[in-house]
Specification:
This protein is about 75% helix and about 0% strand. It is mainly alpha-helical. The protein has one domain (about 15-175). α1 crosses α3 (about 65-95).
């Protein structure tokens, strides 16, 4: 049997690049999926969707801000995607148990299935009510978000981070 291969965590620069890639993939995929859901399932417009996101922080005036409201909503979307991506990447780097889970596709899938609803629960029950002063409404759209965060947010986030950090190879079986 071959000697265990010593594998170290990614260098800070590689970890930063992995975070950047994870953030951009997550933000882009969520943008496309949220936009499609708003337009095709809810009969809204792209402008109204992203103005609505901005309204979370800027209040109802964001709905009347035109392109500036859309830009503010997109900036907020990017900031939120970065925050959840950074939290995941940092947790990966700090947690041998999480790295072991990510080695296998089924483990990464399980992580994504848990992380997606967690993100929505924290956002809808904590962050958004703090920003708006309003409690969440538990209608159909709220439940759609609970489940939609898995394919729209955390599958791309987890599998991109897994690959970018190099945690997707069998050689890591002896790492932790």
């Amino acid at each position: 049997m071959a000697a265990p291969v010593a594998v170290s965590l990614p260098a800070p620069r590689a970890a930063a690049q992995a975070l950047g890639l994870t953030w951009l993939v997550t933000a882009a995929w969520d943008f496309v999926c949220a936009s499609a859901l708003a337009v095709f399932a809810y009969g809204s417009t792209l402008a109204r969707l992203w103005q609505g996101v901005a309204a979370t922080v800027l209040g109802p005036a964001a709905l009347e801000m035109g392109a500036r409201g859309v830009a503010a909503g997109l900036a907020l979307h990017l900031a939120v995607a970065f925050t959840w991506s950074a939290l995941f990447v940092v947790t990966c780097l700090a947690s041998p148990a999480l790295r072991r889970l990510l080695r296998r596709p089924a483990g990464a899938l399980a992580v994504a299935v848990a992380y997606g609803p967690l993100i929505w629960l924290v956002m809808s029950l904590g962050v958004i009510p703090l920003a708006t002063g309003r409690a969440p409404s538990f209608g159909l759209r709220w439940w759609v978000q609970v489940f939609a965060h898995v394919p729209f947010v955390t599958l791309p986030l987890v599998f991109t981070a897994r690959r970018a950090l190099g945690f997707d190879t069998d050689r890591l079986a002896r790492w932790d």
